[in-house]
User: What shape does this take?
Amino acid sequence: MPPVIDPAQLTRPSVFCRALLAAMEASEGRRKRRKRDQTPDTLGQELKRWVLEQAIAADPEPEAFEGWLLQLVLETPGSGGLRAMCQEVLMEYQLAQHDPDFRAWLALGAPSADKPRA
Assistant: This one.
């Protein structure tokens, strides 16, 4: 079972990104059961994972997170896919700041009814 995070700590981008990585890992089993070509999904998820890892390492301040994501895009050549993933991460971060249910779900390790229990 993943460690439980204090939901109030999810205001910190690095803590939020760690929780989002845990949620992505929790969804891996569902992704693997799909019966279609998942190459595009896999590429997108790897790019998102990379963005989250970069944010964890950089540990930007909450008020600077959007600018940090923008700078990451501007410094990366051919960054169309990266721009999309940064927008997605920012949207999810903003949702976590305003939706206590989403924030609590992330803080609990993204539990899912269809995820096998360890």
User: Anything to note?
Assistant: The chain has one domain: 7-31+42-107.
